[in-house]
Description:
By secondary structure, the protein is of the alpha/beta class. The chain has 11 helices and 7 strands.
Amino acid sequence: MDKHNVEKAVLTTINRAVSSKIYSNENEEASRTNNEDNKLSKAFERMKNTMSKDQLDHQDVIDIAKRAPKRFYKFFWFNPNMPPEEEDKSYKILETHFKKGFCGVKIHSGIHLIKIPRDILKLVDFMQNYNQNFPLFIHFTPKFAIFSGISSNDIAKLASKYPNLKIIVGHAALAMELAVDLSLSLKKYKNILFETSCSIPYGILNLIRNVGSKRILFGSDAPVTNPLQLEISKILCLPINDEEKQDIFYNNAFSLFGH
């Protein structure tokens, strides 16, 4: 962060089990297969089998944030798709972390196979009742061969139902078509922000042109995916003015978290 002049950052944990096993080969025969559909199906099955029904441990987030408390906004990665008997326990864990200074929630629509808004209504009600300033970060997972994914229409339903909820659509310009769809479909919902990590530069530019620079949040997803410098360069290379860059890199996050 110091090297790249990052003043503050959102910090959350990672799903180590899924990250390490989702694309691992089960045996030598699997590694030799040329059937891409079969590979995808096996990877998806491993992901389902690997998913924990418990909430992830966030002690790493707490420990890192303690080293520089004024530089981190702690987000809790929540699994809302749990057995009914685990609900009370899970929400008690979430509340405990809010009391420890966590100020937002991340959900992963792909890893936890979440339908939006159906599977997160209780989560959002809980967040809104606790603190309406807490944003919800949604890892956007589009539809693919063996997963129905979520759509811009799903996000629109959520934004319409909860107009006071700040929704951050993660990886919003992952592909050009996705950026066009999200920016045009969700433009009228002022409580939706668009995050830039893992996105293509021209997709980010499309978002800026359609929804304006004041609804774009710079994100890096570092160190899990791309190097931080690469994500910064994607914004710096865009044909936009310095005021728009300042919005994306600083002003919008300050407006969201500064208070």
